[in-house]
Amino acid sequence: MLYWLAELSDGGDAFNLFRYITFRAGGAFFTALIFGFIFGKPLINILRKRQGKGQPIREDGPQSHMEKQGTPTMGGLLILSALLVATLLWARLDNPYVLITLFVTYAFGLIGFADDYAKVSKSSTNGVPGRVRFTLGLVIAGIAGYWASMAHPEGLQFQLAMPVFKDTLLNFGLFFIPFVMIVIVGSANAVNLTDGLDGLAIMPVMIAAGTLGAIAYAVGRVDFTEYLEVHYVPGTGELFIFTSALIGGGLGFLWYNAPPAAVFMGDTGSLALGGALGAIAVATKHEIVLAIVGGLFVVEALSVIIQVLYFKKTGKRVFLMAPIHHHFEHLGWKEPQIVIRFWIISLILALIGLATLKVR
After folding, report:
1. By Cβ atoms counted within 10 A, which residue in 57, 124, 130, 330 is the most buried?
2. Residue 62 above 70 pLDDT?
3. Cβ-count burial 245-271 (b if 16+ within 10 Å, e if not)
4. Could you give the CA distance from residue 276 to residue 286 in angstroms, rounded to a whole number?
C-alpha cells in the first residue's frame, strides 16, 4: 500500500525510498515486530479467558508436558495478524506472488484455527479429522500451484528447477501441480509436527523464511541471477517484504513463547507458516532447496512416518516417541537443550541451502 507513495516522487525526495524493496522490507519487519509487542499480551489474556483450560495435553506424551496444562493456544493469531498488517502496508498488492503466498498462508491458517477451536471447545486432543485437513490442504495447494505456474515466465511454467545443476529444468507438464501440492501440504504438516516444544518451531521457521526471502530477492533481480547463474523470476523480490514481516511477527510471538511459554502457536500458526514456506519455494522455483533449508521439518515428519510404518509392520518402535524431539526428551535431554540444538541445526541447514545459489 505504501509503495504507491513512490508515485508521488520525482526521484529526488523522501517518497522515492518506497521504491526500494530493502527499505520496505525493513519497514515491514519493524511494523510486525512492534505489532507483536503491543498486542501480544492483550491477545494472550483474551485467549486465556476464552479457552479456560487452554490447549489439551496428550496424556501419552512426556510427563513434563503436564505442567503446561492451562496454557492457551492459537497464538498463531498474533503472528498472522502482524504479518497481514505489515504485508498489506509495505508490499505491492498487485504482485501475484505476494497474493499467492497470502492466499496459502491464511487458507491454511483457517484450517488450523478450525482444528484448534475444535480441540479447545471439546477439551480433547482430537480436532478436525486428518482426512478433512489433508483434503482441504491439497485443494488450496492445487489452486496455488496452478496460479503460480501461470504467473511464472513462459519458459519456467510447469518446470522444476534443479539446484547446483546450471540451467537444468525438468518439464513436469501438468504433473507439476500434484508436485506442488505435495510440497506445500508437506511443508505445512511438517512444521505442524515440529511445533511440540516451547520455541521449537518458530525460530526454524524464521530462519527458513529469512533464507527463502534472500533467495526471492536474488532471483527477482536480473543482475543477481546473471551473476549467480540461477533462473530469473521477475517479481519475486516482493516476497522479501513478506518474509521480513514474518520474521518480525515471529520475534514478537517468540517473546511470549519462550520457555516457559505464555501461549502456544497452535495449528493456527504452524499450518499457516509451513504453507507459507512451501508457497515461497514454489514461487521462486526453489522447491528442492526448501527440503534442505527446512531439513529439520523434513526429519521431524520422516520420524513420524517411519515410526508409524514400522510399528504397523513389526509392532515395535524405532524411536522412543515421535516426532523425534520427543525421542530426545525420553533420552533425558532438557527441553531448552533440545530447542537450542535444533535451532543450531536449522541455521546450518539454511547456510547449506544458501550455498546452492553459488555452487553451479
Report:
1. 57
2. no
3. bbbbbbbbbbebbeeebbbbbbbbbbb
4. 13
> Can you tell me the distance from the alpha carbon of 108 to that of 145, in angstroms, rounded to the nearest whole number?
14
SS3 content of the chain, % helix, strand, coil (to 5): 70, 0, 25
Question: pLDDT tens-digit profile of 66-92?
Answer: 667 778 999 999 999 999 999 999 999
- Single-letter code of the amino acid located at 136: L
Q: What confidence tens digit (pLDDT) does each residue in 112-164 have?
A: 999 999 988 887 778 889 899 999 999 999 999 999 999 999 999 999 999 88
Question: Per the structure block, which three cell numbers stand in for 317?
Answer: 518402535
Length reported for the chain: 360
Question: Which residues are CB-neighbours of 232 under 8 A, at least 6 positions away?
Answer: 153, 219, 220, 222, 225, 226
Domain boundaries, the chain: 2-286
Location of C-alpha cell 547449506: 352
Q: Read off the pLDDT of each residue in 165-187 and give the average, rounded to a whole number.
A: 92
